[in-house]
Amino acid sequence: MDELAIEVHDLRCAYGDHVAVDRVDLTVARGELVALLGTNGAGKTTMLETIEGHRRPDAGNVRVLGLDPVRDRLKMLPRVGIMLQESGFSGELTTWETADLWRALRSRGGDPDAVLERLQLAHRRDVQVKQLSGGERRRLDLALAILGEPEVLFLDEPTTGLDPQSRRRTWEVVGALVAAGTAVLLTTHYLEEAEELADRIAILDGGRIAARGTMAELVAGMAATISFLHPSGAPSLPPLAGSVATRHGDEIVVTTPELQRDLRTLLAWADTHDLRLQRLRARDGSLDDVFDAVAVAEPVAA
Ligand SMILES: Nc1ncnc2c1ncn2[C@@H]1O[C@H](COP(=O)(O)OP(=O)(O)OP(=O)(O)O)[C@@H](O)[C@H]1O
């Protein structure tokens, strides 16, 4: 069995003269979740639509389960689940009728009641879709995408509009599918969603992959920071070799390659001078920092 469920090689997609996806490579293995992040207009949706077979690439190669998503569409569809940003289901049908219709259309099998139970929609099975709340509809979208346990799952911003509890429940369901061997390609604007779920992360910017790797690999190059309110009348800071201290209003921010060493030095300095460091915070580099670095590096139009 092919270990790679999704293979994208040298993909290029353009709208007229505008290149939306520019020579991108990406793979997702079975049992792996890859999160595609990016600024607005970075090309995530275009890329996802092309991998799903809704658009033909202008150049490059896409394979899903070894199949060409456009040419072999009918063979591919029963084996994949797709959760779009907006679903176009009739509001007149009930939740259960929608799931049952979807099962018949996708000829993929699966038990509508089981999947509704899994997404905590069993109590809403006989309610018309138009009467569901926004969050319930989003959960129904996911229920339909995972009906019949697809081998590959595409999730386009799956938790937008969900409350924290529903979001966590969604993460549990997706995590269980990945553990059972499903390959998942996810786009999201929630960095904590990528941190929670992704085995690997790719950050798209202006149609190109600007950064990629595991969470650990991505944040490895990011400096840690220590911040605190500058105590009034405090003497100058102790020497912190290789670190940079800046002042933002009343706050001191130390950017450091040696978090533990500098924190120890600063606490000793505060003890010696009998200072209280208010709003003291120390943290490692984060995905936000990686994302900011990508966004900041964006060329400014002349
Ligand atoms: N139908 C279209 N015709 C022309 N340009 C388009 C079309 N759809 C998208 N674009 C452009 O292609 C680029 C990529 O858009 P895309 O929707 O793929 O980005 P995205 O990363 O999904 O953005 P968002 O996070 O805002 O949803 C953008 O510059 C967008 O304006």
TrEMBL record:
Biological processes per GO annotation: response to antibiotic
Localization per Swiss-Prot or TrEMBL: Cell membrane
Pfam families, A to Z: ABC_tran
Any single Gene Ontology cellular-component annotation: plasma membrane
Domain ABC transporter span(s) in chain numbering: 6-231
Keyword Transport: yes
Membrane topology: Peripheral membrane protein
MF-aspect GO terms: ATP binding; ATP hydrolysis activity
Keywords: Antibiotic resistance, ATP-binding, Nucleotide-binding, Transport
Domain of life of the source: Bacteria
PANTHER family (UniProt xref): ABC TRANSPORTER ATP-BINDING PROTEIN
Protein name as catalogued: ABC transporter related protein
Lineage: Bacteria, Bacillati, Actinomycetota, Thermoleophilia, Solirubrobacterales
